[in-house]
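Appendix B, Record 12. Input sequence as logged:
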Amino acid sequence: MGINNIVIREIQPHDNAQIERVIRACFHEFKIPLVGTAYEDEETPKMYESFQNKNDVYFVIELEGEVLGGGGVKPLKDFEADDVCEIQKMYFSPKVRGNGFGKLLFEKCMQAAKELGYKKCYLESAPQLKAAIHIYESFGFKHLNGALGNTGHFSCGVWMIKDL
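Logged structural output:
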């Protein structure tokens, strides 16, 4: 596989079906609950349309026309401060894991969050996603004892935040 041909770019309308497949496959692979997670979010099948506001962005990782992962930044839903964003829908195909692309995409999301004017970055994860949680910790994210905002993801047991 030509790993050097990897492109990280903003999502386009034709990416929806591919990124939906990547997201949903991770839930089965890691045995993450399907209820109370991104698996059942109404935006998962329409990621392009869900990230078209002035204060959000979603990036995909593409290799030779195939979308193999993605992640985005959005305002934290139903949170009192409007300067807190959430990094969300960050999932990767096994084809690109372990090559540093998750870290690159995460850095791109953090930079985008700063450029969009956010002061804090929040995320939720599942305890099964140990490699992802390790990356978040390496970026200085701190664990919280409970959820912030109202993401609807009651099956996520890991909550983290970082000052930008």
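The first strand starts at residue 6 and ends at 10.
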